[in-house]
């Protein structure tokens, strides 16, 4: 367990998640008070990654529940394995097994399909798992209401088995892309954190941490290019995941610095919509590149190396 | 935070929370309690941590975060100079050694939190049978008399009540459903000693459909605007998941007005909010604003988008085409209602309309009941397909 905000921050950087104090603070509060975190932000800024890194630094399991419209109790909590139960009953009938063994048999743990929420609640590990509820905004209001219930008590009742209560509450992280507003009641039960696009300095450190063999000059150019692009209006502005993809692609191609031709060839890593690609070309790749070329290596030498 | 003694911070926190609430943040007693508990975990001398902790606790959206930042700056840089918080909070109870998270004190001081009531109740639309309807079916709205307007209003409500459904991925039991329902089958079988006499079935559930309306209120639309607004008013009621905008040179969201106030008040509130009534038209520009700011929240293919305009546009046709294309990609169906289309010799020859036509799924008249009914049929067909 972590006792200070600094400890969390350095542990996260050790796990290659470069962050500022704000995320570490929220995680610290969440670990201390056992309250879930709601993380919002544009796509590709590392929302899901937080949960993965948290599981990694706590050295525990990550249980992920991906939300979609129509997600319900049976696909998120538990379900009886009905076809198997029916087969078993038929078999018992043919073999003329005693009645009570059939009754107890088919409603035992063997026939229970445990879905992510039940997995998270019914855990015996010393360190509770991290439960990631991803893209909660995609689920519908009914599921949100149900989730509210689970998150407040961390216990579920299965009529045939009984009530299962979490021995240790899992650490819960919810992410949302803001395709719709979440219900106030759910927001109220969470710490809120908004992840913005990173600053130039931070983005450079992230790339250097995640793609360690890439040249510093290329990193500087890529990040400057991204910062510049994000100032403009696009259908989908590129996030950090695009920066990382791009840096890796450039490295795989053996490039050491950006030029117009290279950018043009690899622009598909950065923009995923035809309109956006066209818009960049209309803006002129040369124009976007021009401020990157003058060799003032001031910014470059200041890059703090990730640990 | 320098300048605060141990127990003092709590009363300031309460004041701060109250200010946030007055500015529209969703503050509840339990959030304030958690904020107080969180503060006990950190070193209060570090202003940045203090800020981050309060923010994590008291903010619940990006919009709120901006308001928070503003008030935080104002509140916590000003307070230490002041004598004491000027409020009715029982100062005596906040002694130095007291646990910051003690709920009793907080819940007493926080009674004001609970005062906020529910939003105004929903007025159920009345249904009325109407016989003259056939005659009025093709009549232009602008030629309706005062008496006929009442009929029109009822007709709108009736039309709308039928449309507001959509099929979802949730299941419900149904005798002739397409899917097997194992859980219920098993339950039924146990009634007959484990014999499967009849299999339970289920089908997809019907849900309210999402509808987004963008309505032109520029000068050229003046003749029909009133009726269309009336129609939109009904729309806002019938489709709980609708989002309604008006535009001429700028885009204004009026969903909240339409859903929460009765018609006369709504009309007044709309005219107060919409500052570009009867102005020129910048369809492309307004659609761009919509695409940038509002459409991102809409899942592609989930909503029917309805545009109401005569297509007279002063903006660039290229922009209009580009934005129409983006809307088209978002929409489950894109319907364009044109108030001129009902007139017998109308042809869509103005540039704006010609530019937009290739992207439209359905092009219908907006000035007759027949056109609106056709739109209703399209919406119903959408829900039937799921």
Structural features, described:
The complex is a heterodimer of chains A (307) and B (386). Chain A has three domains: 5-72 and 116-195, 3-Layer(aba) Sandwich (Rossmann fold); 80-109; 200-289. Helices cover 49% and strands 13% of the residues of chain A. Chain A is built from 16 helices and nine strands. Chain A is of the alpha/beta class. Mean pLDDT of chain A is 86; it is low at 295-307. In chain A, β6 (155-158) and β7 (162-165) form a beta hairpin. Chain A has helices at 5-14, 21-33, 47-58, 73-76, 82-95, 99-106, 116-121, 141-153, 184-188, 200-210, 216-230, 240-252, 260-266, 274-283, 285-289, 298-301, and strands spanning 37-41, 62-66, 78-80, 112-114, 130-134, 155-158, 162-165, 171-176, 191-195. Chain B has 386 residues and is of the alpha/beta class. Chain B folds into three domains: 8-115, no CATH class; 169-206, no CATH class; 210-385, 3-Layer(aba) Sandwich (Rossmann fold), CATH 3.40.50.410. Helix content of chain B is 46%, strand content 13%. Chain B has 15 helices and nine strands. Mean pLDDT of chain B is 72; it is low at 80-135. Classes of the chains: A alpha/beta (307), B alpha/beta (386). Chains A and B meet through α2, β1, α5, α9 and β9 of A and α2, α3, β1, α8 and α13 of B.
Q: Rg of chain B, please? A: 28 Å
CATH superfamily grouping of the largest domain in chain B: von Willebrand factor, type A domain
- The CATH class of the largest domain in chain A is identified as Alpha Beta
Architecture per CATH nomenclature, i.e. the level-2 architecture of the largest domain in chain B: 3-Layer(aba) Sandwich
- SS strand fraction of chain B: 5-15%
Largest sheet of chain A: 5 strands, parallel
Cα Rg of chain A: 24 Å
What is the annotated CATH architecture of the largest domain in chain A? 3-Layer(aba) Sandwich
Q: What are the secondary-structure elements of chain A, in order, as H or E?
A: HHEHEHEHHEHEHEEEHEHHHHHHH
**Large-scale geometry of chain A:** elongated
């Amino acid at each position: 367990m972590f006792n200070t905000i600094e400890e969390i921050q350095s542990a996260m950087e050790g796990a290659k998640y470069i962050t500022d104090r704000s995320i570490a603070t929220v995680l610290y509060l969440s670990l201390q008070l056992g309250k879930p975190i709601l993380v919002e932000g544009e796509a590709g800024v590392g929302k899901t990654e937080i949960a993965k890194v948290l599981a990694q630094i706590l050295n525990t399991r990550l249980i992920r529940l991906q939300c979609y419209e129509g997600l319900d109790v049976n696909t998120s909590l538990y379900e009886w394995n009905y076809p198997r139960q029916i087969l078993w009953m038929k078999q018992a009938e043919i073999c003329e097994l005693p009645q009570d063994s059939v009754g107890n048999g088919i409603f035992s743990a063997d026939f229970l399909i445990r879905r992510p929420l039940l997995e998270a609640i019914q855990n015996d590990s010393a360190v509770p798992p991290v439960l990631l509820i991803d893209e909660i905004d995609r689920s519908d209001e009914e599921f949100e209401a149900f989730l509210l219930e689970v998150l407040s008590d961390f216990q579920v009742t299965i009529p045939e088995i009984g009530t299962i209560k979490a021995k240790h509450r899992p650490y819960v992280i919810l992410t949302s892309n803001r395709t719709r507003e979440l219900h106030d009641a759910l927001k109220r039960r969470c710490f809120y954190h908004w992840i913005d696009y990173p600053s130039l300095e931070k983005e450079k450190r992230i790339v250097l941490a995640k793609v360690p063999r890439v040249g510093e000059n290329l990193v500087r150019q890529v990040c400057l290019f991204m910062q510049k692009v994000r100032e403009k209006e696009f259908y989908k502005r590129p996030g950090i995941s695009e920066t990382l993809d791009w840096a890796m692609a450039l490295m795989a191609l053996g490039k050491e610095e950006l030029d117009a031709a290279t950018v043009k060839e690899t622009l598909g890593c950065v923009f995923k919509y035809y309109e956006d690609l066209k818009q960049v070309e209309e803006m002129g790749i040369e124009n976007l590149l021009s401020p990157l070329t003058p060799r003032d290596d001031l910014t470059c030498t200041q890059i703090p190396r990730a640990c | 935070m320098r300048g605060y003694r141990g127990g003092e911070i709590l009363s300031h926190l309460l004041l701060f929370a109250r200010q946030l609430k007055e500015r529209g943040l969703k503050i509840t007693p339990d959030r304030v309690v958690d904020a107080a508990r969180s503060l006990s975990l950190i070193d209060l001398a570090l202003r940045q941590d203090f800020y981050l902790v309060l923010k994590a606790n008291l903010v619940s959206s990006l919009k709120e975060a901006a308001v928070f930042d503003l008030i935080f700056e104002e509140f916590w840089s000003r307070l230490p100079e002041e004598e004491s918080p000027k409020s009715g909070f029982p100062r005596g109870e906040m002694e130095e050694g007291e646990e910051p998270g003690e709920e009793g004190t907080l819940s007493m001081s926080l009674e004001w939190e609970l005062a906020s009531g529910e939003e105004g109740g929903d007025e159920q639309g009345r249904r009325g049978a109407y016989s003259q309807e056939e005659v009025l079916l093709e009549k232009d709205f602008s030629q309706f008399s005062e008496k006929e307007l009442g009929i029109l209003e009822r007709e709108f409500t009736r039309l709308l009540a039928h449309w507001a459904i959509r099929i979802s991925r949730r299941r419900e039991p149904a005798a002739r459903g397409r899917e097997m329902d194992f859980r219920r089958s098993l339950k039924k079988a146990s009634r007959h000693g484990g014999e499967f006499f009849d299999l339970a079935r289920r089908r997809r559930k019907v849900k309210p459909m999402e509808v987004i309306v963008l309505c032109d209120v520029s000068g050229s639309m003046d003749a029909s605007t009133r009726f269309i607004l009336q129609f939109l008013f009904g729309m806002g009621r019938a489709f709980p998941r609708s989002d309604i905008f008006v535009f001429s040179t700028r885009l204004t969201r009026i969903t909240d007005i339409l859903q929460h106030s009765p018609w006369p008040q709504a009309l007044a509130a709309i005219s107060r909010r919409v500052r570009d009534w009867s102005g020129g038209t910048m369809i492309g520009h307004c659609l761009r604003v919509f695409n940038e700011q509002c459409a991102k929240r809409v899942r592609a293919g989930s909503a029917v988008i309805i545009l109401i305009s005569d297509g007279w546009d002063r903006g660039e046709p290229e922009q209009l085409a580009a934005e129409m294309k983006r809307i088209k990609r978002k929409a489950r169906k894109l319907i364009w209602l044109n108030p001129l289309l009902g007139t017998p010799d109308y042809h869509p020859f103005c540039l704006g309309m010609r530019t937009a036509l290739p992207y439209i799924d359905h092009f219908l008249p907006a000035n007759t009941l027949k056109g609106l009914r056709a739109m209703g049929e399209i919406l119903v067909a959408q829900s039937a397909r799921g």
